[in-house]
Amino acid sequence: MAYELIEVRTEAGKVGVVQLNRPKQLNALNNQLMDELGAALKAFDADPAIGCMVVTGSEKAFAAGADIGAMASYGFAEVYGGDYITRNWETIRQVRKPVIAAVSGFALGGGCELAMMCDFIIAADNARFGQPEIKLGIIPGAGGTQRLPRAVGKSKAMDMALTARMMDATEAERAGLVSRVVPLDKLMDEALGAALTICELPQLAVMAAKESVNRSFETGLSDGVMFERRLFHALFATADQKEGMDAFVGKRKPQFRHR
Ligand code: CAA
């Protein structure tokens, strides 16, 4: 598939990088961009050479939200009946390998929601997160009212959704929205470093860890712990479990085969 609104590349033959590329609109997210992003991530996910993905934007904006110009004239028939806005936003949830959001600049509205759909967020020190939809007479529509409180708790999520104020990178890290904050010029190095670390680790265990952490958001504790235990037990059927433990006991470096 030829892409117009994203740039796609591979780093070190192992990390799939998707860069959102609508700079004049601050990477405002329209259906075409989200179709392309979904297709690129699914293609990387299906590629056995790829172990991890990074989604990033520009220095000024990861993404400034859904495309306001495109949806300004929509009515209920279009957005509900036609599912015009967020119909293709959850594709990212079908991706089984890890996806890291490398965020610099604005991550607002759908941009913040897109970052939260990724598995974790590494932020540049100029990153600003917000759910300002209330100023447009709407509310977040791609998971913001659901994922933000899970990430930062009710009080901050309410504050952001009700007042539209932005959170800077320091506050976002303190609140648990982002896992790391680095200087802007180190953002991609940090994200690629994390991605390469993941690529070196046993892929079946990586995928199981992602699946199990995600399950914690969907289920109660007892069912979640049971789900985790089944995956934990299943990993004892993998060659990499034997290799990892033999290597530890033998005080040597493991050679994982992702099997
Ligand atoms: N949609 C469409 N275009 C956008 C956009 C968006 N979400 N955000 C920015 N742009 C465009 C601007 O219209 C402007 O275009 P022109 O140069 O053609 O005028 C260009 O990007 C640059 O933007 P600004 O001139 O506004 O830049 P700034 O530095 O002064 O301000 C900003 C930056 C604070 C991010 C401001 O652009 C802004 O507030 N953007 C809107 C943020 C927003 O409300 N996001 C939520 C969208 S709704 C949503 O996402 C729903 C959902 O949950 C799915």
From TrEMBL:
Query: Enzyme class, one word?
Result: lyase
Q: Which Pfam families match?
A: ECH_1
List the catalytic activities from the record: a 4-saturated-(3S)-3-hydroxyacyl-CoA = a (3E)-enoyl-CoA + H2O; a (3S)-3-hydroxyacyl-CoA = a (2E)-enoyl-CoA + H2O
User: Tell me, which GO biological process terms does this entry list?
Assistant: fatty acid beta-oxidation
The record's section on PROSITE patterns has: ENOYL_COA_HYDRATASE
Q: CDD domains recorded for this chain?
A: crotonase-like
Entry EC no(s) = 4.2.1.17
Gene Ontology molecular function terms on file:
enoyl-CoA hydratase activity
Q: Which domain of life is it from?
A: Bacteria
Could you list this entry's UniProt keywords, alphabetically sorted: Fatty acid metabolism, Lipid metabolism, Lyase
- Can the keyword Cell wall biogenesis/degradation be found in this entry's annotation? no
**Gene3D superfamilies per the UniProt record, alphabetical:** 2-enoyl-CoA Hydratase, Chain A, domain 1, Lyase 2-enoyl-coa Hydratase, Chain A, domain 2
Is Lyase set as a keyword in this record?
Answer: yes
Q: What is the purpose of this protein?
A: Could possibly oxidize fatty acids using specific components.
Q: Which family does it belong to?
A: Belongs to the enoyl-CoA hydratase/isomerase family.
What protein name applies here? enoyl-CoA hydratase
Question: What lineage is this protein's organism placed in?
Answer: Bacteria, Pseudomonadati, Pseudomonadota, Betaproteobacteria, Burkholderiales
